[in-house]
């Protein structure tokens, strides 16, 4: 199905060391020399903020190496920045003669959209059509790359190119399923049957963390199981009135409460953080964890003593997630053609496959092309979501500061709060923002 080219924003990325704007403006250091670019088609200046040992950094290293092979007369000047450096100082940097030719930048109305609105980013739409990038990126994954004249995502103009995706999926402890004779879920009915069987055996089935994003992600995921894309567009992009006491959110609160009462969640998890939830899964205290693919890499390292697997959450065609951060080309970039050539390499089959093999989620690689079995499972789960245009973003995106509201409301529910009060708590900031929105 095709969804309307609309919807709204987020933030999430690894943070390294915070530094000052002065450091960002310091002279660049080249991968094979030093000095600044001259804008003569002989130098590509590139910034990103991925950690050196991460899947994406390895992919970008390979893309730089490929670029050098195909552009032997071009010097690549690469700077590894931090997320905070770029996030806090991008407007000032991109409005100066120190702007790189291409850089990684956070997706969202307050980030890529804001810079696009200010005229600091190049409209990449002609390049998208020329290189066919729009044929490799699904509509739902491209929403955070496209903006309108107000800087709101889902517009017709491309100001960024994402190469990877992120989403919430299910992690299973295969050994515990086998030990307790529980069948792997294939739909919501069998998912609830698995929860009941584990609980009957004295095992709390679901890992959770009330004092962080996992619990509120669960609440939104349950709402999405009763929602359609029109509801998501209304909620995320203000395209119509959202009734927080309607069937979607009411079902989510009621089902969450039901699972608490049945012991599928542990009410004592109300004060836990996301890392505590992961520890519940890694230590085999909980056989099922529903969480983001950002936990995947750590699990492959930390789990040594049991078999585990991943799959799309079986209770909904829609899940939390989006396209990843964007490659953007500043308006003041001196070598925009070279920037486009580099972006094209990151979208190539080889680099996309490498992203998958290293444990991240490529936007343009087929699951069958991924040799690593666990990485293939991850890619298959993401492909299943993309087949339904099922990336529904995150519950806190629509309103600034909304993350804290969602955490507090979920904790209220876990502490015994009434359904109506929880829904009113979620509705208040959202409706206040709509009343004052230009």
From TrEMBL:
Residues annotated as signal peptide: 1-32
Coiled coil: none
Pfam families assigned to the protein according to its UniProt record, in alphabetical order: SBP_bac_1
SUPFAM superfamilies: Periplasmic binding protein-like II (SSF53850)
Gene3D superfamilies in the record: Periplasmic binding protein-like II
Entries under InterPro entries matching the protein: Bact_solute-bd_prot1, SBP
Domain of life: Bacteria
Sorted UniProt keywords: Signal
Protein name (Swiss-Prot/TrEMBL): Sugar ABC transporter substrate-binding protein
Organism annotation: Streptomyces fumanus
């Amino acid at each position: 199905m095709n969804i309307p080219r609309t919807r709204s924003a987020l933030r999430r990325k690894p943070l390294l060391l915070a530094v000052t704007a002065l450091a960002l403006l310091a002279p660049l250091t080249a991968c094979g020399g030093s000095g600044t670019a001259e804008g003569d088609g002989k130098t590509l200046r590139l910034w990103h903020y991925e950690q050196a040992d991460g899947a994406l950094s390895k992919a970008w290293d390979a893309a730089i190496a490929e670029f050098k092979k195909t552009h032997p007369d071009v010097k690549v000047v690469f700077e590894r920045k931090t997320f905070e450096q770029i996030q806090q100082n991008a407007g000032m940097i991109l409005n100066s003669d120190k702007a790189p030719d291409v850089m990684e930048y956070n997706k969202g109305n307050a980030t890529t959209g804001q810079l696009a609105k200010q005229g600091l980013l190049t409209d990449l739409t002609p390049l998208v059509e020329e290189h066919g990038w729009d044929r490799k990126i699904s509509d739902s994954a491209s929403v955070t790359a496209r903006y309108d004249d107000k800087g709101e995502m889902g517009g017709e103009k491309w100001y960024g190119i994402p190469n990877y995706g992120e989403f919430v999926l299910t992690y299973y402890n295969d050994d515990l399923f086998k030990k307790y004779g529980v069948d792997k879920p294939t739909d919501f009915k069998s998912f609830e049957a698995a929860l009941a069987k584990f609980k009957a055996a004295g095992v709390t089935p679901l890992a959770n963390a009330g004092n962080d994003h996992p619990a509120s992600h669960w609440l939104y995921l349950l709402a999405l199981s009763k929602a359609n894309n029109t509801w998501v567009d209304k909620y995320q992009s203000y395209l119509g009135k959202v009734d927080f006491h309607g069937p979607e959110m009411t079902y989510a609160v009621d089902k969450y409460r039901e699972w608490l009462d049945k012991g599928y969640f542990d009410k004592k998890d109300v004060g836990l953080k996301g890392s505590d939830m992961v520890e519940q899964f890694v230590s085999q205290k909980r056989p099922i964890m529903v969480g983001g693919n950002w936990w995947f890499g750590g699990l492959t390292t930390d789990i040594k003593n049991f078999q585990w697997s991943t799959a799309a959450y079986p209770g909904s065609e829609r899940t939390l997630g989006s396209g990843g951060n964007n490659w953007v080309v500043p308006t003041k970039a001196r070598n925009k053609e070279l920037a486009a050539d580099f972006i094209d390499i990151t979208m190539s089959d080889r680099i996309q496959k490498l992203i998958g093999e290293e444990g991240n989620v490529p936007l343009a690689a087929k699951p069958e092309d991924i040799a690593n079995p666990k990485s293939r499972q991850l890619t298959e789960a993401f492909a299943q979501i993309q087949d339904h245009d099922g990336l529904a973003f995150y519950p806190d995106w629509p309103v600034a500061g909304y993350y804290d509201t969602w955490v507090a409301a979920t904790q209220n529910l876990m502490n015994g709060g009434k359904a109506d009060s929880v829904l009113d708590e979620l509705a208040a900031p959202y409706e206040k923002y709509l009343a004052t929105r230009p």
